[in-house]
Specification:
The complex is a heterodimer of chains A (108) and B (145). Chain A has 108 residues and is of the alpha/beta class. Chain A contains three helices and four strands. In chain A, 38% of the residues lie in helices and 31% in strands. Chain A has a four-stranded mixed beta sheet. In chain A, a hairpin with a 2-residue loop joins strand 1 and strand 2. In chain A, helix 1 packs parallel to helix 2. The longest helix of chain A is centred in the first third of the chain and has 18 residues. Chain A is globular and about 30 Å long. Chain B has a single domain, classed as 2-Layer Sandwich (Heat Shock Protein 90), CATH 3.30.565.10. The longest helix of chain B is centred in the N-terminal third of the chain and has 22 residues. Chain B is α+β, with helices and mostly antiparallel strands and 145 residues long. The radius of gyration of chain B is 15 Å and the shape is globular. The chains are: A alpha/beta (108), B alpha+beta (145). At the A-B interface, helix 1, helix 2 and helix 3 of A face helix 1, helix 2 and helix 4 of B.
């Protein structure tokens, strides 16, 4: 599991890689939140293209960041999602939050 | 249904074992020649069940998680994940989507994922005794063997 953070202007991108489950979610969350606090972006992109597995712990991670960003009016966007991970996100109804769309999905 | 192969294991309710549990069961399921999507469904459902044992059943304590997987003669896998933790007071309530008895960024989707990704889910629980989750998935035969 690793998270690489990159800033371009007011956009902060978190490149997630490895397996995202209850065990790894805490470290990912802490790293992303520290970077949000430091950079105060207007948009956070969570890039899942390096994620090889995700269960509903990933939904908790996304929803938690959505709440953190909403406090400052910043937006969240999700990219690089495989069809299997999209199944979990769809089950959680994430499309309704407008954080992902069909361009978020990739095929490996 | 007749059981044609079986394996059992138990492990400590340590979160580092979540990935081990899903890897072990998915490796066992490979003998049914599942698709990548089917194996991914199994891994996700197992991960949810094992995480429930760690996060909910044993909470701050540490206990054992007992896992049995069986290959059935109708091209199915049956997985039992059992704990001796606190038990669930209201199973129907716990199975409601987005319901979580704790905060800590839990989405409350564990049972919904298990229900959606597997063909059958059974939950038996007794307070202060423990919980057994049974998951069944049919694997569609792809080739004439």
């Amino acid at each position: 599991m690793s998270v690489e953070m990159k800033t371009t202007g007011e956009v902060l991108t978190a490149y997630l890689s490895g397996e995202l489950d209850h065990h790894t979610a805490v470290a990912m969350r802490n790293q992303i939140d520290s970077s949000i606090e430091l950079n105060m972006p207007t948009m956070l992109i969570l890039d899942f293209s390096g994620i090889t597995f995700m269960d509903s712990s990933g939904i908790g991670l996304i929803m938690g960041r959505y709440r953190v960003l909403s406090k400052s009016g910043a937006k969240l966007h999700i990219s690089g999602v495989t069809p299997q991970i999209y199944k979990v996100m769809k089950l959680a109804g994430l499309e309704r939050l407008s954080v992902l769309d069909e361009t978020s999905i990739i095929n490996r | 249904m007749k059981v044609i192969n079986k394996f059992s294991m138990n492990m400590v309710s340590c979160s580092a074992n979540e990935s081990f549990a899903r890897a072990a069961i998915s490796a066992f399921a490979l003998q049914l020649d599942p698709t990548i999507e089917e194996i991914s469904d199994i891994k996700t459902a197992v991960s949810e069940a094992v995480t429930n044992c760690i996060v909910h059943a044993y909470r701050e304590a540490t206990g054992k998680i007992y896992i049995t997987a069986e290959i059935l003669d109708n091209s199915s896998i049956r997985i039992r994940i059992k704990d001796r933790g606190c038990g669930i007071a209201d199973v129907n309530k716990a199975m409601e989507p987005l319901y979580s008895s704790i905060g800590d960024e839990r989405a409350g989707l564990g049972f919904s994922v298990m229900q959606t990704f597997m063909d059958k889910l059974t939950v038996r629980s007794k307070l202060d005794v423990g919980t057994t989750v049974t998951l069944v998935k049919h694997i569609s035969p792809r080739f004439v063997k």
